[in-house]
Amino acid sequence: MLVIVALLLPVMMGLSAAAIDYASLVMRRNELQRAVDSASIAGVNQFKLANADDATAEQTAKNMAQAQARNSSGRALQVTATVIGNHAGMRVTASDIIPLTFGKILNMPTVEVAVQSTAKLAGTTRLCLLALDPAADGAFRLESAARVTASDCSLYSNSKSSAGVQSENMAVAKALSTCSSGGYTGSGANFTPPPATNCPPLRDPLIDRQGPTPGSCINLPFADPKKLVDGIDDPAYGVNVVSGATTLSPGTYCGGLHLTKKADVTLQPGIYVMKDGPLVVDKDASLRGVNTAFYFTGARGGLLFDDKSSVSLTAPKDGLMAGLLFFEDRQAPPAPVSLAPASGKGKPKPAPGGVTALREYRIISDDARTLLGTIYLPVGRLIIDSKKAVADQSAYTVIIARMINLYDGPNLMLNARYGSSDVPVPTGVGPSSADTILTQ
Fold it and tell me: What percentage of the chain carries pLDDT values higher than 90?
């Protein structure tokens, strides 16, 4: 018996050492897997935040993996994190060198353990355009050679109509995805990729946002030195008329604001309330503002940026209207009268499907390349009818309106470079609020 025990003892000790090594490997692998699972989720969740970019998300994932899989010996853990898809997923891999006891006998003192995890966002992600009308034909409509380019974000229509999304002739919508709660009309060449249909309607993501309270009316007695030049100013375009070079201050502009006859206007940062009147920029006038917002309330509201105008605006980075460039009062009465451009271009076009009594916000300008922020017109119709790119120089632009119609030949660029601007994106649009799931 002693001889047998003596012969079997090395084998038993080897098996015990192998069992210990195996248990150690399994335990370490489980630790690493939990770490990369947490890391991939943490990384992809960064894309739900306003100012996240690829580098930030990847570094967050690496830091999470390193922290959760730290080993007691101080060995360096190899971690890689990679964004996959269009900011919709994160793949994390980790590996560690594990020392062996029994393996030394077999000239294998260590073994590498490697794991991988992939997490993705499930549901609508990076929303940058939403047509709110629940039933209208052409709630989101493109005609002629109009284009919408939203390569990194999604387009959505809540209309249950079989033609809730429309694209005609050579019009093209190119986006991360396009989704219609009803159907769509147009050929395969009009959409890249083709729209999904019968999507569940989205709740207005800004329905809980409150607008500012109008204050005392601002008086501009000397802002119109060209008052009698080139005809009398029509008060329907705004009671407060500016035709010279000036700087305006935030406040309430009762009766609206009309910049005309080569006016050169710079806005101080803040909120500009258009009460009982529109905002109009025409006849070679220019409008510039950094960290500015417009709130439209009362009767006879609306907006017109005529073709012979220059507009450059960015939304506030803090305060009541942080991230909001245009905000329409949900309770404002309809203003069905269209503001006809002074140039004669872009004659009023009826809304698709015979919809009436909508306020109109018309961007016809061929120089409206910076519109940084969120355009929120919950009861209004946004019309874009320029000949050139719109908002292409903005870090990001988000549009939520009852109806969104593009005519003629504009290229509306809905960028999604959220990390390159200090202007926040309102919760629910822009970066995703979708669920995060592990897929591997």
Answer: 46
